[in-house]
Prior knowledge:
Blueprint lengths: L2 E2 L1 E3 L2 E3 L3 E6 L2 E10 L3 H19 L3 H17 L1 H12 L3 H23 L4 E4 L5 E9 L2 E5 L7 H12 L3 E5 L5 H13 L7 E3 L4 H10 L5 E5 L2 H13 L3 E5 L4 E5 L5 H13 L9 E7 H17 L18 H17 L2 E4 L3 E2 L7 E2 L2 E6 L4 H4 L6 E7 L2 H9 L3 E2 L1 E5 L3 H10 L4 E4 L15 E2 L2 E2 L9 H4 E9 L1
Parallel strand pairs: 1-5, 8-9, 8-11, 9-10, 11-12, 13-14, 13-21, 14-19, 18-19, 21-22
Antiparallel strand pairs: 2-3, 4-5, 6-7, 7-25, 12-24, 15-18, 16-17, 20-23
Helix pairs in contact: 1-7, 2-4, 3-4, 3-6, 4-5, 9-10
Amino acid sequence: MTVHQNLIAGEWTGANGVENINPSDTNEVVGLYAQASVDDTKAAIAAAKAAFPAWSRSGIWERHVILKKAGDEIMARKDELGALLAREEGKTLPEAIGETIRASQIFEFFAGEALRLAGEVIPSVRPNIGVEITREGLGVIGIITPWNFPIAIPAWKIAPALCYGNTVVFKPAELVPACSWAIVDILHRAGLPKGVLNLVMGKGSIVGQTILDSPDVAGITFTGSTGTGKRVAAASVEHNRKFQLEMGGKNPMVVLDDADLNVAVEAAANSGFFSTGQRCTASSRLIVTEGIHDKFVAALTEKLKTLVVDNALKAGTHIGPVVDERQLKTDTDYIEIGKKEGAKLAFGGEVISRDTPGFYLQPTLFTDATNQMRISREEIFGPVVSVIRVKDYDEALATANDTPFGLSSGIATTSLKHATHFKRNSEAGMVMVNLPTAGVDFHVPFGGRKGSSYGPREQGKYAAEFYTTVKTAYTLA
């Protein structure tokens, strides 16, 4: 089997490959992917640093054409790349193809943004002096991405980094190198100059740490665990570099007595269980008022009975496997914790077998949970959801906000008064009304508050806040 190599200074390099295993069928090796060393990573950073002066001053049309080519190829290959994503991460094929389309749209958007780069020309308060305000690239950007969105998250970090004239050292998650390798290969063939984009696959303790330790990295954008995010922050402060963190979530969905029951159930099922619950925007806390609680739990339980857990590539599958054995153990450990804490296991919770060996777990619903239980406060990152009964809207809002996280939140209601109040008073970066908490558009800002995020928002025109620095220039007329 051919080893997929790292890309450093425009050259593919690396001989020893690590197996990428399909979580839907652990007998299948998706591919072999090279592992970068400390020296490889240092070489990638040096290449990016050397390439920055020319790329940061490159023409906007050149950047536009390259990003557009990449977006077009991703879209043309959406079925192939979607299947690759499903095989390496376990997301169902329709979800995986949808994520691939989103990656294409992100490149398309930033191809357009490259042509819309603008600044300001304003008068000085002093006579005969002009002022220009412009944005410039930072320099070398270290990009560290997670395993749960193997093509979309790399796209929404790489595309703006390149659009605004930065060079990149990219480390994808160890579990999902295939989509990252494909996206880098596409950009490389689209015409990026040598050293502008470098791919270094491998362990966080080696590759990631080398990026953190380098004084030549001007900015780091990271999506992943809260613990690792804190280490990224500490290392970045030491080097006085810009950093952007997207971390965990324990997102609430409030269901009020006046909610449309079908809308509430569909939103809760989508938020909590689709993508196997492996989304930082998933609703793992369902906060339900007394009047609708029993009807909601019964309807959601019936909905869960209809969801098919199976191989991600199989037609009709609603929920694929958990990404790997370690994550499966985390999920099952939390299920046992929930039982011991006194929550009632209302549905699921069992590891199950299918025709192909994989990490299959039933969608799991707890009731009689409190907001102080560990299953209600700690991010599980699996298809495990708790229902918390509350008296009324005021208690629901207070409970929703009582969390160290603040990424996404939702409310199911037909009351304009409550919807409006919730949008204003929810302590989250993104708020959904009668919609799943997971799933946002590619052209609007993405990010949260409190322990979920740090730094400027990702995506859309707001990405410029992280990937550029502002320069103010004065000229005597």
